[in-house]
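dumping this here so i dont lose it
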């Protein structure tokens, strides 16, 4: 299969651009190399519209409607699929804070069960309620500050602000865990490793790379569904993030080369089957040199407007509804985490007395191990 990846809503490391609250990735796939076989089709469309390149944002509703019948023919002829990933940037800033501050592997005042089991998700959602937009922005700006001395002092300030808000919570166990975690960070700001250490590291933790990682896993899922192998992955050239995209891809390729076992960080946590991880190099192209990238731009534009409930011509809505009904969708946001894990917890069976007793014993062990690190 051939894959073409494009993004929308890119604001780089600025997660608080009010005009672009979300980051999107679109993944177009086909059994055919669209850059070769669809050339004549796209030339005809460009001639019809009197343009040199198909770029949906420039074409808009009116011009896209003019070519929607041809797009439908192209979709059918080349057996095209489209998949979609989204990330809410402000939520990502809070999630990033949580993963640094409450990582039990670094912060020993956090109970093992509060981070390395699905209990981390309810805790994350509770912690998120302590953040307003301004505090989330401060947390992110501190995260990407290369000056460690400044970052550590600001991290202390942020944690002290959170301490002042903690009385707004009602769950006593959550209050205890959050208090213990934050107090430890205030006393050990240099140990937590909260901020990045280089410009390159900034890009590696950016929402662009986290979302690109999701796009790669979506490709793996699509390959599994189709029971096919990847022939080529084409990504839109972007000087700022292509190097980091290559880095994350090669990281997972190396993991696949070294193990056949699914990657899982802890019991009952999400796992990643990397056995179908593509081992090919990514081909970076400009959209003017790739038919597939011009097509994925159109699909992504339509999908984004549907997602954001923006004005979209009826023929475009009908096209997307009819042709993209098997879309794979992934979202990184606090709402999606809540939805996914609320269902998981609600589906759990009632524990037996033996299981409850084992749980109590393990809980006591966890508490004994963290007790020496709790700051009174």
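and the seq i came up w/
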């Amino acid at each position: 299969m051939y894959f073409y990846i494009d993004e929308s809503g890119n604001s780089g490391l600025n997660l608080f651009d009010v005009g672009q609250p979300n980051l999107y990735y679109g993944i177009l796939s086909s059994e055919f190399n669209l850059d070769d076989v669809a050339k004549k089709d796209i030339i005809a469309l460009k001639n019809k519209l009197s343009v040199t390149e198909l770029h949906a944002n420039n074409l808009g509703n009116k011009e896209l409607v003019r070519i929607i019948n041809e797009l439908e023919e192209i979709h059918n002829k080349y057996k095209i699929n489209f998949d979609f990933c989204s990330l809410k940037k402000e939520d990502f800033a809070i999630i990033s804070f949580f993963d640094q501050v409450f990582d039990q592997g670094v912060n020993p005042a956090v109970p093992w069960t509060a981070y390395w089991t699905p209990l981390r998700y309810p805790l994350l959602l509770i912690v998120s309620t302590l953040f307003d937009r301004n505090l989330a922005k401060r947390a992110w700006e501190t995260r990407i500050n290369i000056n460690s001395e400044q970052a550590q002092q600001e991290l202390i300030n942020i944690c002290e602000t959170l301490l002042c808000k903690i009385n707004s919570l009602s769950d006593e166990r959550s209050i205890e865990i959050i208090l213990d975690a934050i107090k430890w960070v205030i006393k050990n700001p240099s140990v937590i490793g909260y901020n990045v250490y280089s410009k390159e590291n900034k890009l590696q933790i950016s929402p662009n790379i986290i979302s690109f990682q999701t796009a790669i896993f979506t490709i793996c899922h699509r390959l599994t569904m189709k029971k096919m192998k990847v022939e080529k992955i084409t990504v839109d050239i972007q000087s700022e993030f292509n190097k980091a995209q290559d880095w994350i891809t090669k990281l997972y390729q190396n993991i696949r080369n070294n193990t056949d076992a699914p990657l899982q960080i802890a019991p009952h946590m999400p796992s990643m089957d990397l056995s179908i991880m593509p081992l090919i190099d990514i081909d970076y192209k400009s959209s003017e040199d790739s038919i597939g990238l011009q097509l994925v731009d159109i699909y992504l534009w339509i999908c984004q407007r549907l997602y954001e409930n923006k004005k979209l011509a009826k023929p475009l809505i009908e096209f997307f509804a009819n042709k993209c009904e098997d879309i794979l969708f992934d979202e990184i946001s606090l709402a999606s985490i809540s939805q996914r894990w609320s269902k998981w917890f609600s589906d759990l069976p009632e524990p037996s007395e033996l299981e409850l007793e084992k749980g109590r014993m393990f809980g006591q062990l966890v508490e004994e191990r963290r007790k020496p690190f709790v700051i009174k």
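The chain has two domains: 2-88+201-335, 90-199.
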